[in-house]
Amino acid sequence: MKKLTIGAEKYAEELCACLERARERLWEEHGIRLNGEQFSRGRYTFYTYRVSGTSEGIEDNCTGTAMVALAEGIAEFITDVWERYELQRIVASDFYYYGSDEVEYLADSAVNMLAGLLGPDGKPLRAQHIALSVLEQFSQGHEILIEGLLRFRMQSLQEDLHRVALQSIDEYLMDLEYQEFVKILRYFLDVQEPRLPLLHMVYLDENTTRLFNAEGKPIEPGDITEPVVEDMLMSTLINLAPEKLHIHAAGESLPPLVETVTKIFAGKTVVCRGCPLCHTVHQWEDLPAQKATDQ
């Protein structure tokens, strides 16, 4: 087998770590051992590999498998290391008004978005596509320079990174608006005099929530003195301002609406996963319902 050479100008240590993990997987999964060497040439660091043995003692026809393993290692380096640094550079350059902590947060968020794109096998789709491009380069020659690969054969990666950076910023701004929304409602709740010692909120679905007093009786429209203009559920909860709020919601994870309510009523909520009241309400179809038109 001819030797395979991978070189990089930047982040050479991180590249080495990714290649070493690929070499370990190659031995564990295929019984193929690669012998690796490192050398420098100017500003570049190179890593060379060749098959030094197999678990069966046969070294023929191992080149393709070794190429696949190293291509996956290079793809891991590009997606987990290079793209993270490049996203930090893009955000810091194009959106200079963000501080260093925000730049790091936005870059991490963008990386997670890209990693969340999975193929049918449950593996990151982006890394698979990059590995295929690396394999194509290996088929044309056994030496790869990471910067050259990215500059000339993967130009579309830069466009993808700019798009996901913008998406990450959009979601970040939406989250800031959401946090401000929660803060304002908590302020209104703090200045409101409690009208009930205990309120039961039974979440049925994203559009239907039922409210009961401490005795388990439905909250009637007459119990609400303020007119409801928008966001009926939130307005009703703030208007009633219970000292304690028991939330009844089935399922392992909390729905977004319920999460928002728990943040607004922080320290006043108890979440129930199933009780006689929950069971009864799910069977009653004629009780008045509060509609959650907006979170």
Question: Separation of termini?
Answer: 62 Å
Strand order of the largest sheet: 2-3-1-4
Largest sheet: 4 strands, mixed
Using the alpha-carbon principal axes, give the shape. Answer: elongated
Number of E-type strands:
8
Helix share, percent? 40-55%
Sum this structure up briefly.
This protein is an alpha/beta fold. Helices cover 52% and strands 18% of the residues.
Description of the structure:
This protein has 295 residues and is of the alpha/beta class. It is built from nine helices and eight strands. Helix 2 (63-94) runs antiparallel to helix 3 and helix 3 (100-115) crosses helix 6. The termini are far apart. The model is unreliable at 224-230 and 284-295 (pLDDT under 50).
